[in-house]
Design goal:
By secondary structure, the chain is an alpha/beta fold. It is 42% helix and 18% strand. An 8-stranded mixed beta sheet has the order 1-2-4-3-5-6-7-8. Belongs to the peptidase S33 family.
């Protein structure tokens, strides 16, 4: 359909969202993680460009999208995602969400199942209570960083300070992101790649969605909605993600049309550490 296009999408309240479209084939819309970060899916777009028209976007108030004061709610972000879909003229699309973006992609699919041909749920944390997994995640983060004591010491130093410069904010994020990868020697390279380009994280957005997720995750209403979802879902996990993978069981057990792919040697960004396995999993719904 197109070899490359970057556009501005206007949400229904006028906030401007950065978006892009590349590749040829089945329409595929990506939802990045965070919350409060930005689209880092350049490698995913390149990996799938032969089979999909890949639509990427920065969530409101984040990255290349217009700075704004929110609102920071799943309902608002679902509406923004629908504005992206409508802007590109997509009647139905495959939807792929990663990490927190998997939560958003699931929420959109529950709200608009008729507009989603399939959902690819990558490295999410399921629909159970946040307390079921978050403590173990923090322990695993420290353990992975602790495999390289210099990284852990420097990250703790930056984490314990206020008033960091932009350079130090980036350094702190890169150090934390090294824990997302299995190969400790290549992890700094992968993490620096994530930070290029670099934008300040939206802390207000992150805090608001953290609170909302704690309220909604694990509720009977969410389980019931997932049990009634008549859309095919592929769950893709890196087995060595520092977020405990059993947390995703809550979602897999609720969904009536689900297939799970576990990539044994990958962490939180499986397309980086097992690009072939990741691409094969996604292509099953393209």
């Amino acid at each position: 359909m197109t070899d490359g296009e970057t556009v501005t999408v206007a949400a229904d309240d006028g906030v401007r969202l950065w978006a892009s479209r590349t590749g040829r084939g089945v329409p595929l819309v990506l939802c990045h993680g965070g919350p409060g970060l930005w689209d880092m899916f350049g490698d995913v777009a390149a990996l799938l460009a032969d089979r999909a028209v890949v639509h990427r976007w920065d969530q409101r108030g984040c990255g290349r999208s217009q700075p704004c004061a929110g609102p920071w709610t799943t309902e608002r972000f679902v509406a923004d995602l629908d504005a992206v879909r409508e802007h590109f003229g997509l009647e139905r699309t495959v939807l792929l969400g990663h990490s927190w973006g998997a939560w958003l992609a699931l929420a959109y699919t529950l709200a608009h199942p008729e507009r989603v041909a399939a959902l690819v749920y990558v490295a999410g944390t399921g629909i159970g209570p946040v307390g079921d997994w978050h403590g173990a995640y923090k322990e695993n983060l420290l353990a992975r960083l602790g495999e390289h004591p210099g990284r852990l010491a420097r990250w703790r130093e930056l984490e314990g300070r206020t008033g960091l410069s932009a350079r130090e904010e980036r350094e702190r994020a890169v150090l934390r992101w090294t824990a997302e990868f299995v190969d400790g020697e290549r992890a700094p390279e992968h993490a620096r790649h994530m930070a290029d380009p670099w934008f300040p994280a939206n802390r207000a957005c992150n805090a608001a969605f953290g609170a909302e997720t704690r309220r909604v995750a694990g509720t009977p209403e969410l389980y019931a909605a997932c049990r009634a979802l008549d859309v095919p879902v592929v769950v893709v996990d890196g087995a060595r993600d520092i977020r405990p993978r059993p947390a995703v069981d809550s979602l897999v057990e609720a969904l009536p049309r689900v297939r799970r792919v576990v990539l044994p040697d990958a962490g939180h960004h499986p397309w980086v550490e097992d690009p072939q396995g990741f691409a094969e999993a996604v292509r099953t719904v393209l």
